[in-house]
Amino acid sequence: MANNNENKILNVPNLRFPEFTGEWKKIKVSELLDFYSTNSLSWEQLDYSNGKIKNLHYGLIHKGVPTMVDVACDALPYIKEESMPKSFTIFKEGDVTFADASEDTNDVAKAIEVINCDNQQIVSGLHTIHGRDNSEQTVIGYKGYAFASDSFHKQIRRIAQGTKVFSISTRNFDEVYIGIPSKEEQTKIAKLLIAIDKRIATQNKIIDKLQSLIKGLAVALTTKGKPNIAISQRLECHSSTLQESEVLSNGLYKVFGANGLVGYINTAQMNGDAILVIKDGSGVGTVSYAQGKFSVIGTLNYLTAIGNIDLRYLYFALSVFNFQPYKTGMAIPHIYFKDYGKAKIYCPSITEQKSVANVLDKLESKLFVEQGLLASFNQQKQYLLGQMFI
């Protein structure tokens, strides 16, 4: 690819394929797309099992579907027969739809492009904006990525309205632009990004299979005998009062929270191995493993070994332990060690514990490698979205 950082030619991206030259055309989104009415159907009015017309709810745009939505392959819900709207516009190949609201300005106007419609019918649903390039200035596959680019979302962030929930309307598309090169260059850009997305999808499947294998083996190997020892007899629970606001962006020791590494601090709570357990919030009961000098914020407990026990074995045992009976609280669920610590788990001989932990360790190490690859692919995609568009 050719880099345009030094030449500074107007209206071309920083990074492009070397065979293409000349400036791109900049066009208002409102001049590129014609907009169509959408419905306001809730999840309760949709059904994944059967129906005639599929519905693209804004929640699926935020989480669930890729940039290029393949109608024939991607799972989309149907409109229930009794909830069918009186009028609607069916998607055509290459149509786009935007999520018009989000709690995060980065996700306002998050867009998808519909491909491979075949004979299937799909409509745009709640909190979406349905657009179509009737002038055929773009090729199928280009618009979805152009609307995912950094240059487009920087414009959206400047105009998104709201305090807790940010939103846009079709009127805002009079204020934002995208760049349009020749159709040949559009096609090459789309093919590259579609190939990366397919590789990301494959990598996600690899990770899902590995996670399923590890969980299945952990269940089989740590529950094959009768529960014979209480958790509190082999693990000691430690709490923390550290708040995320006290965490530094740089420091000597890692600090872990509900979402993993959250920052650093200069004084470590722990020096050694420990099992980390989320004790409240949406991820309550999720376990992870930490080593060396580290600290945790107050939403986590860390558990250390008592007596002659393999801590990694207990980590895998707790990773498949059912915390559900020990959850308390309605709005924010909690678990307490004083409650689930009384539960018994199966602890075989120390030799067998080490053997089980060794098998699962190797699989988990493989999982971490695959997750690292996924992160690399996602970083590559984000870099290209930041450099290949204007």
TrEMBL record:
<dbReference type="GO" id="GO:0003677">
    <property type="term" value="F:DNA binding"/>
</dbReference>
<dbReference type="GO" id="GO:0009307">
    <property type="term" value="P:DNA restriction-modification system"/>
</dbReference>
<keyword id="KW-0238">DNA-binding</keyword>
<dbReference type="Pfam" id="PF01420">
    <property type="entry name" value="Methylase_S"/>
</dbReference>
<dbReference type="InterPro" id="IPR000055">
    <property type="entry name" value="Restrct_endonuc_typeI_TRD"/>
</dbReference>
<dbReference type="InterPro" id="IPR052021">
    <property type="entry name" value="Type-I_RS_S_subunit"/>
</dbReference>
<protein>
    <recommendedName>
        <fullName>Type I restriction modification DNA specificity domain-containing protein</fullName>
    </recommendedName>
</protein>
<dbReference type="InterPro" id="IPR044946">
    <property type="entry name" value="Restrct_endonuc_typeI_TRD_sf"/>
</dbReference>
<keyword id="KW-0680">Restriction system</keyword>
<comment type="similarity">
    <text>Belongs to the type-I restriction system S methylase family.</text>
</comment>
<feature type="domain" description="Type I restriction modification DNA specificity">
    <location>
        <begin position="23"/>
        <end position="211"/>
    </location>
</feature>
<feature type="domain" description="Type I restriction modification DNA specificity">
    <location>
        <begin position="243"/>
        <end position="374"/>
    </location>
</feature>
